[in-house]
Amino acid sequence: SGVIFIAFVSSSGVIFIAFVSSSGEASSPTDLEGTFVRNGANPLLVPKGRYHWFDGDGMVHGIQIGGGQATYRNRYVRTEALVAEREAGEPLWTGILEPVEWDNPRGPFKNSANTDLVYHAGKLLALWWQTGIPYELSLPELETRGPELFGRNHRAGISAHPKVDPTTGEMMFMTFGPKAPYLSYGVVDAHGELVHFTAIDSVPGGRYQHDIAITEHYTLLMDLPMYADPELLKLGKSRVRFFRDRPARFGLIPRHGIDAEVRWFEFDACYIYHTINAWEEGDEVVMIGCRIADPLVGDPSNPQRAYEVPAIGLQRLEPRLWEWRMNLRTGATHERALGDRLREFPRMDNRRLGTKSRYSYLPAIAPAPTLLFEGLVKFDHETGLEETYRYPEGVFGGEAVVCPRTGSTGEDDAYLLSFTTSLEGTSELYVWSAREFGEPIAKVPLPQRVPVGYHAYWAPA
Fold it and tell me: Is the pTM of this model over 0.85?
């Protein structure tokens, strides 16, 4: 796994590349116009203390597609933290495996903007996995334009996975932190202006948050039972625990609502890194996502497995596709597994976000000591059937983004794009037909290695 996770600092040149079809001939889709971008962690400097994959500086890799050509670029996200460390010539923050330096004059946490990307109100934003100010990047150059404050000097930041309503253009987000208010919720309008921001005081303490979901009328927030032990915090120590005796709570808040309007629903204890979608169905709100029943390494209550469960640091990654239902009339809840195989980093057609969707696309997790994606799965939520593509031996993929064909309207009338990395140090962009899923219809050999990263996005032309 060391080959995969070694940091890679590349040149800042612009490189023209070519598609190669499955038959080996040069070929470029003529009905795909836009830029495929992916974020990930690449430390500029040797980290301070023990290094965790989440600690690295944000680097965005992008391929601009159009006019029968493809152009590759990659750039660091020039955050205030990266600039400060570059000027100092040394790391200025500890990573997440080290004790937090609460007295750090620059703040205890480094916003590396290394996690996700979102395209909203004509701007591409780089986001951080905790809560931080997002950074705007130019398209297609990927140059950092600076922090995005949403027209209101909003320095509370946003989390890694905001949701954009494809109908209204609004972007919903949450923020979280170790001090009250532990969770806040906001809405940015279609023009990029912050129009709503409110504290969610019904969350009683600091929580490790990561994702939300939206429907036509609601935003779904979470209060999950994995967080720092409050008794140890009183002693000035920090240790993450999973509290199995406490429920997972989902809070439905009206889109422009306040804490008093949140309605909480309880489910079996779990942790959730990523949702897929949510929608309203009669009296119910339905959410689908990836659920982890045993999220921490070293927990004595973890079940014994016949296979190796991937882990990154303390995170134990055994996620399964799941469905949760909340009845707004009766208050009843129901949850069920949609399969028993390990799936994560799910994506769907964002044109259906917040309304009922049929398909999701999920990397298949390899049975390995760390997180590696050995294939890609198309899951049909209407039939429960799935189709699977396996990468060649020694090749691992990433999150696959749904990229609609020009002028298309059908949910799977699109392409799927994902970067791959091989153990030999080569990388390609794989292109599949979402509708006729199977072998990739084209591959784009890249001029340099693109290391395994996090989340990707499609910014249409």
Answer: yes
pLDDT of residue 461: 84
Q: What is the pLDDT of residue 16?
A: 60
3-state SS record for the chain: CHHHHCCCCCCCCCEEECCEECCCCECCCCCCCEEEEEEEECCCCCCECCCCHHHCCEEEEEEEEECCEEEEEEEECCCHHHHHHHHHCCCCCECCCCCCCCCCCCCCCCCCCCCEEEEECCEEEEECCCCECCEEECCCCCCEEEECCCCCCCCCCECCCCEECCCCCCEEEEEECCCCCCEEEEEECCCCCEEEEEECCCCCCCCCCCCCEECCCEEEEEECCEEECHHHHHCCCCCEEECCCCCEEEEEEECCCCHHHCEEEEECCCEEEEEEEEEEECCEEEEEEEEECCCECCCCCCCCCCCCCCEECCEECCCEEEEEEEECCCCCEEEEEEEEEEECCCECCHHHCCCCCCEEEEEEECCCCCCCEEEEEEEECCCCCEEEEECCCCEEECCCEEEECCCCCCCCCEEEEEEEEECCCCEEEEEEECCCCCCCCEEEECCCCCCCCCCEEEEEC
Q: What is the pLDDT of residues 227-241, one digit of tens each?
A: 988 888 777 777 889
> How confident is the model at residue 150, as a pLDDT?
96
pLDDT below 50 — which residues of the chain? 1-13, 26
Q: Where are the domains of the chain?
A: 167-344
Token pair in block for residue 334: 């129901």
